[in-house]
Each structure stands twice: as structure tokens, then as C-alpha cells.
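Memo to structure team: turn this sequence into C-alpha cells by end of day. - J.P.
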Amino acid sequence: MNTSNDRKPVEYIMIIAGIMLLGSIWGLLECTLGGLKWEVFGLNISMGSVMAGSFGLAFMILARRMFNFTGAAFLVALVAGSLRFVAPVGSCVICSAIAIGAEGLVFEIILSRKSFRENLFGNKDFMTLAFLGVISGFTIFTVGYITTQIMTPVFTGGTLVMMDVFRIIPLIIGRSFYAAVLGGIFVPVIVLYDNLHLDLNKLNKGIYFTASSAFSILCWVMVLFILF
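Reply from structure team:
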């Protein structure tokens, strides 16, 4: 994909379609898998942590690699968060939507570090990528969760009590275990599996735009009118 200064109008249209597609698929998964309650040996699994460390990181990495501009991951997260917000599922819809958007913003901040970005997109060592995945998974979920606790009262007209936020930080860190472990697995797989890194310039533009737009619409229709 060309740099932002060299792109033609049709490429911007393809990028928008791609961001909508990735965000819509992520949002659909958040509304379905993310709404499940799982237990392992009687221990409740934090699905928010699972989704952040797996599909969340996967779609954000794909966005940055495919579209090659700062903010691509955040935009994909905004689309996913928007779909999650309008989906009538879960006890705190706005909490989930804020968390997804915050994860996208935190991931962009992580990638603003040149050393981190170059290793994530240029390194082929599995162990290094796994380590970066652990850090990314832990960071986006932890900061995203804390951001949710702070911002939800702002958007819902509630009362923000910072001491309540501080009290649950140990719980948040404990739940981030799943995001860290899954990040250590998903990140090297997504980065090293070359078939996942599509070059938009090599795709048939008409087929790509039609297919991506149709599938994005399907995701929204499934969430709003079929699944729920």
C-alpha cells in the first residue's frame, strides 16, 4: 500500500471499506463470543480480557499492516465499539464500547514507540513477538478497563469515585492474565503468517469493495436484526 501522500482517491475508498470490514467483524465477535460466560475449573473467565488479547490485537495489527497509517487500529476499534454499543446484549453496553475504543487508542500509543513498532512489524523471531504480544495484551486490557471505569460515569451521568477505581486495580490486573497469555500467542501468529497480510494494490478493486461492503453490512444486520 502506498504512503498517505501517494494515495489516490480510490485507495482511500478501499481503506475505508477495509476498516469497516475489520471493525464490523471484530464488533460481531464482541457481541457474540464476548457476551458468553465461560468457566474453567470453576473459575470465571474474563471474556473482555480474552477478546482483547486475541481478536482485538489481531484486527488492530492487520489494520496497521494493511493500511499503513497511524490511526488505522484506532479507527477499526471505533467501528467495533460502535457496533457493540448499538447491540442490545450485555448488562453494560456502553462499558464494553468504551473499553474497545480505549484499547484501540492505547495500541496506537504503544505503536508510537519506534522500537516497539519496528520489532512488531519487522521482527521474525517468534519469542520476541510473543513477548511483545504479552506486553500489548496486558497493557491494552488494563488501561482500557481502567478507562472504562473512569469514563462510564461521565457518559451515563453517574458519580466518579476514584477510590472505587483504585480498589479494583488488583482485580483488573488479575483479569489481564488472559489478555497477556493470548497476546503472546496471537501476535506472533498474525505477524508471521504472511497470507494474512493482504496488499490492497494487488486486489481487484471492484470485487474487494463489493465483498467488503456486503460483509460489513451483513455483520451489522446479524447483530441488530437476527442474533438479538
